[in-house]
Amino acid sequence: MDQYLQGLFVLSHDPVAEVRKLVCAALVQLIEVNPSFLEPHLKNVIEFMLQANKDADEEVALEACEFWSAYCEAQLNPELLREFLQQLIPVLLSNMVYAADDESLIDAEEDEAVPDRDQDLKPRFHSSRFHGSEDMKDDDDDSLNIWNLRKCSAAGLDVLSNVYGDEILPILMPLVQAKLSTLGGGSWKEREAAVLALGAIAEGCIRGLYPHLAEIVEFLLPLLDDKFPLLRSITCWTLSRFSKFIVQGIGHPKGYEQFNKILMGLLCRILDTNKRVQEAACSALATLEEEAAEELAPHLEIILQHLLCAYGRYQKRNLRIVYDAIGTLAEAVGGELNQPRYLQILMPPLIAKWEQLSDADKDLFPLLECFTSIAQALGNGFSQFAQPVFQRCINIIQSQQLAKVNRSSAGVQYEKEFIVCSLDLLSGLAEGLGSGIESLVSQTNLRDQLLQCCMDETIDVRQSALALLGDLARVCPAYLHPCLSEFLSVAAKQMSTPKLSESISVANNACWAIGELAVKVRQEVSPIVMTVVLSIFPILQHAEGVNRSLVENSAITLGRLAWVCPEIVSPHMEHFMQEWCNALSMIRDDIEKEDAFHGLCAIVRTNPSGALNSLSYLCRAIASWHVIRSEELHNEVCQVLLGYKQILKDGAWEQCFSALEPQVKEKLSKYGV
């Protein structure tokens, strides 16, 4: 390794740019893979990287620029880099200025009237429905935007701001202010880089910036009307980076006024004639919607009017972002949307598009997703639109299943995403309409289609199918009943796959669906109880290394099975009591946790000796409740604790009780022990 490093240092000043670039790449790789090799030489490496970051060859500078994020992420000594910040930050800032040949400069001139070319439409990925606490969604990375020195420098500044916080402000802000001042005669590109820098540090330096937030916003707002489109678009982005903090100030008049100005500013830019600005404004609005949530209710009408006006004007690529902004808005305001005057603006254009697209048109995907969010938000209010939407999903699934087997007879090409999006929209309908979906499903062969999808060879299809199985189990279990044993055995099989890590999301949804079925059909789950319990053991035993949502769902489903079939589960309880109680104590108070505790009490009543060695774990699990709302469950828990207090002789209960943490003892006092 030392010889290798010596060789790299010798080559670091090679006259050939390609060689210098590879030296930088090697050092970045090393710091990512094994930083300890570089530790003795870090000072020299930092000095070299600083020089390389200013290299006349942009590719060398780009490789060198990757170093700063890698350094911070490797959690190396921040002191060492701190002394170079004075030199590094100006380099990053000057590299954030658009290069003359940046392709964004050419794109930026494109007017909304120019149709999108097919190659501009990046592939889009739908993330299948996932039941649980942590969403497995990836950030939607704009793959069209090519990584370059400008973006890498901004990302580096973002990471540094998160490590050093407000310390970088005295170095950075004078430079930013100089670039922004119109007197300096700087070009629009200089001003644009300064606005980008403000957005990059918005989160890391918020403590230092917060007192000046009102001034920053006042300064940015006029830039939304700048004559240069790339300045308008970057201003949208930077404002969205502050949106969380802007929303926090809504409570007082000044803050409300500021929020209103930003909202109106973004809405105007959504109707910009420039495509890049439309895209940035729509994305910024979606971010603001997520943060503001129900605060948007008073502004719903004007937001909808702008979004649906854009919907009528945008070309294909930006339409997807409008769908996203509409879906996010529906999720943010929920039932507030369910008013005739809003639906009058929102639904007719969407329905017109829905009727215009064929079942094989990929432009249906974002529309299906958008309807899913709207159906969940409107609840029963969606029922007036539900029939045609529901029927179309069934038709799409049917024609796709046919195309899979025999392409020529279906007349469409098989594309799994049609099935996944349709299943997810049906889930959204089940969630929104509740038992009202019964009248829609009863007339169809959805049951057989769903069973087929639960056995599909692709992970995404199984994941969405099992989510729909759980959603239907909640609202219309009777409809599933004729195929109950098949559904149960297929779902149980998904939990006992040897390759669990590859299909965690499938196992997670299968586990959740089994629990939902169990509470509805009770004893009828008995044939698969042991198979599922045996699959849950290892998940709870290795909880540390398993996805949190799967652990929670496993603990809940185990409880639901114990509740409906205590005589099957209780003989095995000593094998899993401790891990199970640990998992239960991590779950937030809700109806699912209540079900699980009914199961816990049921198996303890059936086999009290099975939990004797795990009593302290049981006590901690009970103490994890803030408050048990169900009187019935509260009484069951009291009986369990008092039962043990009576069984345990010769001070054994006192011994167990005194070993518990003070806050656990305090919580247990509500149960009379």
What does this structure look like?
By secondary structure, the chain is mostly helical. 68% of the residues lie in helices and 0% in strands. It is built from 38 helices and no strands. It has helices at 2-11, 17-33, 42-52, 58-73, 78-82, 85-95, 103-107, 149-164, 169-180, 188-200, 206-209, 213-223, 229-241, 243-248, 253-270, 275-292, 300-313, 316-333, 340-356, 364-378, 383-405, 407-410, 416-433, 438-441, 446-454, 459-475, 477-480, 484-495, 504-521, 526-541, 548-564, 566-569, 577-585, 591-606, 615-623, 631-647, 652-658, 662-668. Helix 10 runs parallel beside helix 13 (229-241), helix 29 (504-521) packs parallel to helix 31 (548-564) and helix 30 packs antiparallel against helix 31 (548-564). The longest helix has 23 residues, at 383-405.
SSE blueprint and pairings:
Blueprint: H1 2-11, H2 17-33, H3 42-52, H4 58-73, H5 78-82, H6 85-95, H7 103-107, H8 149-164, H9 169-180, H10 188-200, H11 206-209, H12 213-223, H13 229-241, H14 243-248, H15 253-270, H16 275-292, H17 300-313, H18 316-333, H19 340-356, H20 364-378, H21 383-405, H22 407-410, H23 416-433, H24 438-441, H25 446-454, H26 459-475, H27 477-480, H28 484-495, H29 504-521, H30 526-541, H31 548-564, H32 566-569, H33 577-585, H34 591-606, H35 615-623, H36 631-647, H37 652-658, H38 662-668
